[in-house]
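YM 10:42: Transcriptional regulator sequence, as discussed on the call
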Amino acid sequence: MDRFNAMRVFTRIVELGGFAKAADSLQMPRASVTILIKQLEAHLGVQLLQRTTRQVSPTLDGTAYYQRCVSLLADLEETEAVFSTTRRSPRGTLRIDMPSGIGRFLVIPALPAFTAQYPDINLEIGLNDRPVDLIREGVDCVLRGGLALDDSLVARPLAMMDQVTCASPGYLQRFGVPSSFEDLSGHHVVEYFSSSSGKRYGLEFQFGEQIRLVDLPKQVAVNSADGYLAACEAGYGLVQTPYYHARRQLEAGTLVEVLSGIQVPRLPLTALYPPHRQLSQRVRVFVDWLVDVCARPGNGLQR
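YM 10:58: structure's back
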């Protein structure tokens, strides 16, 4: 039995919650995964996993063993990186997740330079606006906008994104163009809500150190960034969005910026990854590359 391979299989089962998911993730036959775990449990003389018809979860011994495995596997990867060519040319699969807009407009257009520099890294990119459980879903790194960060994860700041307040031309013809904060009375807003937390977002403006929230009536609420802008273009109200996400619509005239003289709070963009991935060469070179991409002028993160 290859004990390190068995550890790798075991940790992935714990993270993904099932034998089949772990096998698919590792591109191994499902029967091989089952055999490896049976051999590992027999070798250790303890039951590591509690199996039910619906899920697989670690026993108390399994939880303790999982924590040691994560540490050992991270140390092994770092050691191999130091004493082999992978330090200069990391290889393997890197699973990342990011908002669809960040992926479409910032990361993927710049990605050919990264894959040319690191041809042995295979990327699996998830594009969505929902929170991701990095451990359970086997994700190495996520990009997230906003302040709601998980303290259990390592955070690497990437940029502060400018935001704009905008509306469609048709909406402004019906409701008028607001020229001051007081003019917002009588306007409507497209509301954004989080499908996971239920938190709802309207408009907010910054006056010095003070943030003022605006409570406006709404007819439409959405839980995706693309849907948020689509509802705005359809004339349902005002929105606030990172500039990069609305830049094309603003240039095309399907959206119009309003209240440009009133500051909107900037939105932080952060890369997050589990502590046991901190030493991963794949994660390290990718996040370093992201820092460089976010610092380039003209990327739309700053105006």
